[in-house]
Write a structure and sequence with these properties.
heterodimer, A: 223 residues, 13 helices, 0% strand, B: 288 residues, mainly alpha, Fumarate Reductase Iron-sulfur Protein, Chain B, domain 2, 3-stranded parallel beta sheet, two-stranded antiparallel sheet, 14 helices, elongated
Chain lengths: 223, 288
């Protein structure tokens, strides 16, 4: 426990590791998007067929809960997936404690979530993680196509939010140890995004645009 | 008298050596059984390189984005009509074919090629429904199509499909109708229809028409009465229309699409459009 609680680890994670994580995340993502668009340019059929209007319609239908047929077919999945993904994006950005860190370092800050909202949303994210893990274990269709990497993504998210939540309430482990773990998992998640299938965070917009354009050319809907 | 319960004959079962969950009745198809005997590792790898070798944006995005959520399963009629058997879901088909090929970089044995061909040819209709159900809009069908092309390049295609493809390669229609047969059939139907509708015409190769009708090859072959019926409809509606008999390009069914034989697909479509351009038609009407 001594090392986990140490100030040395904290100052390393809070200092150079943050820079490293954000640089890898931002530049890695730009690189991934750039290479994908460059590859698409080489293909004859992709870019000339992109239909922006259809793509935006399709984004809206798939980013709003129950707006597409498949969301309506799986109501529980839809509820959990939307709580999970919105929480994953908005809670870290608008959390009061994270804002305070930004303010401390760079003197900038923005709106923050009320504590109760942040807490409940975090719990939903954790429940969402458990739901996804359960689905991967108990649903035979999903189990057949699941490999270990799929579990690792979910567990990274789960640990990040769980340690953050526990650190806030100072349960289980001493505060400093939990906080260090929380920062570590958060940084692992940021670094993992460009290298793993977590790229679906931004590839969503490209693949969706392509399918929407195709569906528009067949005069049908893809939601 | 007690009725004896009928004992169903035990069917022979094929269990895939690669995916033990995949249990299906054994089928005999020379297009699959015989052709895999001719495969060599070099041939397989060459075909793999031809299809998946060059990294393209679509393959990359589809393979790297799929999060294995299994939501596409709800779209698949094979999955729904087989008691939600996991091995029938679209993502499972991609797992058993494309992922396996890409993971092994094309270094696969003939047994796996047989398995892949069986999955992509006999358990998928390329209907594109799963792509519309995927939250990411991944073009699953495109990947299945590429795997079909991989199998086609190796010649591992169900016999029936391959024969149809050969018919298109040779005659550009699916039922081996020669040009003279085709013209003869059309003129015969015109004659037959004349008894029922005064001055019925089946105009052939007329220039400057509004509509060109391209039938399915099955119509002049087996459903000949379709031709005079359509002719009557066009005549009564007062449409300036024609049928085309030149260049053999008149069959609108593009069956090589199902084996992803790009060359023949292109010949068919190009032929139809070139004929339409030649007679300056404004619209093409296809049977479907």
């Amino acid at each position: 426990m001594g090392f986990l609680e140490s100030v040395a680890l904290y100052s390393f994670l809070r200092g150079p590791m943050v820079w490293l994580a954000f640089i890898i995340f931002i530049f890695g993502s730009i690189y991934r998007i750039y290479t994908l668009i460059n590859l698409a340019k080489k293909e004859k059929v992709v870019l000339p067929f992109i239909n922006i209007k259809a793509a935006i319609k399709s984004y809206l239908h798939w980013l709003i809960p129950f707006a597409s047929r498949n969301w309506r077919l799986k109501p529980y999945f839809t509820i959990f997936t939307f709580l999970f993904h919105t929480g994953l994006i908005f809670v870290p950005i608008f959390l009061y404690a994270h804002n305070a860190l930004w303010y401390e370092s760079w003197g900038i800050s923005w709106w923050t979530l009320p504590e109760i909202v942040a807490d409940v949303w975090t719990i939903f994210v954790i429940i969402g993680c458990i739901f996804f893990i359960g689905r991967r274990i108990f649903d035979p269709t999903v189990r057949f196509v699941t490999n270990y990497a799929d579990f690792i993504f979910v567990f990274i998210c789960l640990f990040t939010f769980l340690t953050g939540f526990l650190a806030h309430y100072q349960w289980v482990l001493p505060y400093k140890a939990m906080l260090n773990l929380h920062i570590l998992f958060g940084e692992i998640m940021l670094i993992a995004i460009p290298f793993t299938r977590l790229t679906h965070m931004y590839y969503f917009f490209f693949t969706r645009a392509w399918m929407a354009s195709q569906a528009a050319s067949w005069k049908t809907k893809d939601w | 008298m007690a009725v004896k319960p009928q004992v169903l004959e035990e069917k022979e079962v094929y269990i895939s050596p690669y995916f033990p969950e995949y249990v299906r009745p054994k089928i005999e198809d020379p297009g699959l059984d015989e052709t895999i005997k001719r495969l060599t590792p070099e041939k397989i790898e060459k075909a793999y390189q031809a299809v998946f070798g060059k990294e393209t944006a679509r393959i990359k995005a589809i393979i790297e984005t799929c999060i294995h959520c299994g939501l596409c399963a709800e779209a698949c009629q094979w999955y729904l009509s087989n008691d939600r058997d996991p091995t029938y879901s679209p993502v499972a088909k991609v797992k058993m074919s494309a992922w396996e090929l890409i993971k092994r970089k094309g270094k696969v044995e003939p047994g796996l090629v047989y398995h892949i061909a069986r999955v992509v040819f006999t358990e998928c209709n390329i209907c594109h429904r799963c792509s519309l159900y995927c939250p990411f809009g991944l073009d699953i069908t495109f990947i299945i199509g590429l795997v079909r092309r991989f199998c086609f390049l190796l010649g591992v295609v169900p016999q029936r499909m391959f024969e149809m493809n050969q018919a298109f390669m040779a005659t550009l229609n699916q039922v081996w109708i020669s040009q003279s047969d085709y013209i003869d059939t059309l003129m015969w139907r015109e004659e037959e229809g004349m008894y029922e509708l005064k001055n019925l015409r089946v105009p052939l190769n007329k220039e400057g028409v509004e509509v060109i009708w391209y039938p399915l090859a099955a119509e002049p072959k087996a459903g000949v009465y379709h031709i005079d019926r359509i002719a009557k409809i066009f005549q009564v509606a007062g449409v300036n229309w024609a049928m085309v008999t030149i260049n053999d390009a008149w069959d609108s069914s593009n069956m090589p699409m199902f084996t992803r034989d790009f060359f023949t697909m292109q010949r068919i479509v190009k032929g139809l459009y070139e004929n339409a351009a030649k007679f300056r038609a404004k619209k093409l009407v296809l049977t479907e």
